[in-house]
Design goal:
This protein has a single domain (2-28, 80-183), classed as 3-Layer(aba) Sandwich (Rossmann fold). It is an alpha/beta fold. It has nine helices and five strands. The protein starts with a strand and ends with a helix. Strands 2-3-1-4-5 form a five-stranded parallel sheet. Helix 6 (116-126) packs across helix 7 (133-147). The structure holds adenosine monophosphate (AMP). Residues 9, 31-32, 35, 52-53, 56-59, 64, 85-86, 88, 92, 139 line the site of adenosine monophosphate. The site of adenosine monophosphate (AMP) has 16 residues, from helix 2 and helix 3.
Length: 185
């Protein structure tokens, strides 16, 4: 099972992905989490990525893709993965295609939605180090301008789910939708 989870910052991608990945026995791979772990450990990669994370800009594709390639090449990702926070622009989407060529490809794209003010409040509440109001607004803007248009690229693979509800409800709806989809194959 190869899944992507899309949605603006604060919509609950990380929460849902952490519940969904064990359900299907696949690793939850979050590029944001990988960057934060590198920053916390003060690695060379972390030092390259830190400014972008603090300001809410995208880390350059070469750095992001290099880091993700290493992760996707680990044994646990061979049979599938749930990718959270990648791809974020058309170049990354094309790179991912070439990275997984030779496999059956992406099975489904989960899209979580919620109103703008709910997103800002949620992002502020979680109080992550990189969650200043400026960075949050910049990430939301980038999401709408650069990342959201990618959904057209994935077309009928996209399953849109209302993320502005209780965690468990959202979780069950995603499982129902994706379960239906894969049973059709
Ligand atoms: P996230 O945890 O997905 O909200 O990501 C936090 C930050 O990590 C983003 O604001 C970017 O600075 C960086 N980041 C995460 N994923 C990517 C990506 N696919 N491309 C570039 N930068 C990324």
């Amino acid at each position: 099972m190869r899944l992507l989870i899309f949605g603006p910052q604060g919509v609950g991608k990380g929460t849902q992905a952490a519940l969904l990945a064990p359900h299907w026995g696949i690793p939850h791979i979050s590029t944001g989490d990988l960057f934060r772990a590198n920053i916390a450990a003060d690695t060379f990669l972390g030092r390259q990525a830190r400014t972008a994370l603090e300001s809410g800009e995208l880390v350059p594709d070469g750095i992001t893709q290099g880091m993700l390639a290493d992760r996707l090449n680990e044994a646990d990702a061979a049979q599938g993965f749930l990718l959270d926070g990648f791809p974020r622009n058309p170049e990354q989407a094309e790179w991912l295609e070439s990275m997984i060529s030779g496999t059956p490809g992406i099975d489904a794209v989960i899209l979580l939605t919620a109103p703008h003010d709910v997103l800002v409040q949620r992002a502020l509440q979680r109080g992550r180090l990189d969650d200043t109001l400026d960075a949050i607004e910049r990430r939301l803007g980038l999401y709408h301008q650069v990342t959201e248009p990618l959904l057209r690229y994935y077309g009928s693979l996209v399953e849109a789910v209302d993320g502005d509800r209780a965690v468990e409800l959202v979780h069950q709806e995603i499982i129902g939708r994706i379960g239906d989809r894969t049973s059709v194959h």
